[in-house]
Amino acid sequence: MKILRFAAVGVAAALALTACSSDSDTPSETTKPTASESAAAPEAATIKLWLNGTDTPDALREYLTTTFAAQNPGSKLVIEQQDWNGLVPRLQTALASEDQTPDVVEVGNTQSATFTYAGAFSDLTSLYPELGGDKLLPGFVEAGTADGKIMAVPYYSGARAVFYNKDMFKDAGVEVPTTLADFTKAAQKLTTDKVSGFWFPGQDWYNGATWIYTNGGDLAVQDGDQWKGALSSPESIKGLTEVQELFKTATKAPADSDSNEPWVPFNQGKAAMFSAPTWARWSIDLPECNEGVAADDKSDEATAKRTKQQACNEEHTGVFPMPGLDASKVATAFAGGSNIGIPAKSQHQELAQNLLKIIFSAEFQNMLGQNGLIPGNSEYATSMGDDVYAKAAIAAALGAKLTPAAENWATVEGDRILEDFFQKLATGADVTKSAADADKLITDTLN
Amino acid sequence: MAATAPTVAGTTATPVPPARRRRPKVGAYGLLVPASIIIGIALGYPLVRQFVISFQEFGLKQQFGAAPEWVGLQNYKDLLTDSYVWTVIARSVAFCLVNAVVTMAIGMSLAVLMQRVGRSARITLQVSLLLAWGTPVLASMTVWQWLFDTQNGLINWTLSNVLGIESMAQHSWIIEPLSFFFVATVIVVWMSVPFVAFSVYAGLLQVPTETMEAAQLDGASARQRFWGITIPMIRPVLSIVLLLQVIWDLKVFTQIYVLQRAGAPTRDTNLLGTLIYSYSKEFGLAGALATIMLVLTLALTGFYIRQMLKEDEL
């Protein structure tokens, strides 16, 4: 038994060492600052583009690869899809390494500031006029600018609109609301023991921000070179009080859920309204419309059934932009979307710029619009068409607002300060006190 | 140890052939070289790097090429003057101790049970334990999350529909920190019990039947035999397993992180592992906190390791 014990101590020691160090591994790659731009020669190469999630449809990806190959003889474009989840840590390591970095990268608009201030992107200021200049969505350009240099440009934006179940509206005798106050009343009227008038989970600050912004408040404001949490401003408090009223009286959504897949309860008949980017229309699947076709069935019959199903879903579902304080305006919603930039460590700066030029060509911008994404260049927004979805999307996008363009904003999101805060409101905590606490955390994090 | 020392010493002391000691030591050390190199690269390098970084201002800018600035003990000072960090340390230690003790108690009971029951019952038990041990963490976390889900979870459904406790229908298990840690404890214990049960069971098999028989003949009751003979004899195994549990439970990360993402309030449920992770843009702070955690681990286990090594020298 002695030998056994000795071996066990050895194993324990080794495990203990592992145990202590595995959580604390710090990225060990410290790359020297290299001026990669200076060496850029338009030499044929394979470049990598990282796109996130499935937001960019396949047809658009194909267009990019074929056009790029045609315009840059001998060179090739490879598109790699990244998951939105855990994107920031992945970019932190990949963008810092010459071997691993993509040559063009998409990054969430609220995540841009993290990388632009750190010097992860190449300066695009001189290319900016050629890509669209002032016509590029201004809020997104601001989010991609650090110390006066434009580091990332808008790729697409997605506006939020409210989807509603027309049958439930009819049964409850509710009309589409025209002011934000009306919206609360409508949601309350639609709420029953089993049904949420408005699907509003406790951690859903993306939608909650609408009430803050619309009432003239903000999440954080800049004061000199310092940032300050702004949730306790009188305007924000007014919006947050309305948010808490909705939590209390107009939703059955759990306080421990976030804004993911709000169409699921809607499809199950557990919610009369939900708010999401307009591409959520493809996820609506009401039981009365379901034709029972498999998603991968490519036969003509299946396609016809799918078309019928989609038409039926859209017949039973309405959509409107969240209304503003009075009937003449729409609400200021939170704008989702992405920026796109060229990592400073990329070894193919010139080819990467060529790819950006293709992305900002009229043809590709129009293709984005046709697929329900608001193109980065506002000149091409008309390509979205004029159905109710496009109208709601464009109306909502015009007033949409981003998160504060603070260097450390991504840390506020990483620490989930706003999720925690809205959840507190959902569980009935005092608005003024919770807002003051959250403001303190935001201020500490941003400076 | 006094009463049972003779028995233990009598059974464990295997005579060491004297020839071994006289061999030239160079060869023996030579054999250690490959292992040392691997440990040096895989563990030593990150550890040293972490230590160095903890004295630097090292953020994203440095990650992308800026020169790090030496700040001395500033990172440590920032952390140790932050009352929130102390709250998290206290929370982590409490969580770690409760989990280690509960895991040990259940694991030992199962080991004793395995020894006492019949063959088929034992095999069933062993297979289920192995399955729990072998399931990938994220896969089982998903299942646990579904079980405790607020709206569609099996636990809430059973409580409200089967047992008729209406108020539990939409109960959120993870929104209150205490309830959150209860769920986390259930999951962590469930995942670590198999290791304890098997290790202790292996230890139990080593207890010689002759000794037990002799004690029985001398009139020792079952309880006396268990506490007086079995436990002291398997003590080395118990110590090591408990030591590992303390270390593992202190650095628990995956279970807490996944549960937090399932909708728990993050700040009120952070443990050391998740707090270090949240410093993912300030590597200097993260390195300092990781070093503090290392010191904490050593403080919790150092006495114990010394004790074990001392016993070995007997």
TrEMBL record, chain A:
PROSITE patterns: PROKAR_LIPOPROTEIN. Residues 1-21 form the signal peptide. Residues 27-40 have a biased composition (Low complexity). Residues 21-40 are annotated as: Disordered. InterPro entries: SBP (IPR006059). The keyword Signal applies. Gene3D superfamilies: Periplasmic binding protein-like II (3.40.190.10). Transmembrane segments: none annotated. It comes from the Bacteria. Keywords: Signal, Transport. Belongs to the bacterial solute-binding protein 1 family. This is Extracellular solute-binding protein.
TrEMBL record, chain B:
Residues 89-304 form the ABC transmembrane type-1 domain. Residues 1-14 have a biased composition (Low complexity). It is found in: Cell membrane. The keyword Cell membrane applies. Signal peptide: none annotated. Residues 1-21 are annotated as: Disordered. It holds the Pfam family BPD_transp_1. Keywords: Cell membrane, Membrane, Transmembrane, Transmembrane helix, Transport. It is a multi-pass membrane protein. The chain crosses the membrane at residues 26-48, 84-113, 125-147, 180-205, 226-248, 283-305. The keyword Cell membrane applies. Belongs to the binding-protein-dependent transport system permease family. This is Sugar ABC transporter permease. It comes from Cellulomonas edaphi.
